[in-house]
Amino acid sequence: MSDLTPDLRAVCIEKVIPILHVKNLTASIRYYVDALGFTVDWNWGDGENTASVSRDRQAIMLCQENQGQRGASVWIGVDDIGPLFAEFSARGATIRERPTNYAWAYEMKIEDPDGHVLRFGSERRNDLPPISAEWPATRLSNQSLQRIGRDATSAGRHRSQPPPRYLK
Question: Is there a contact between 42 and 51 (Cβ–Cβ < 8 Å)?
Answer without folding.
Answer: yes
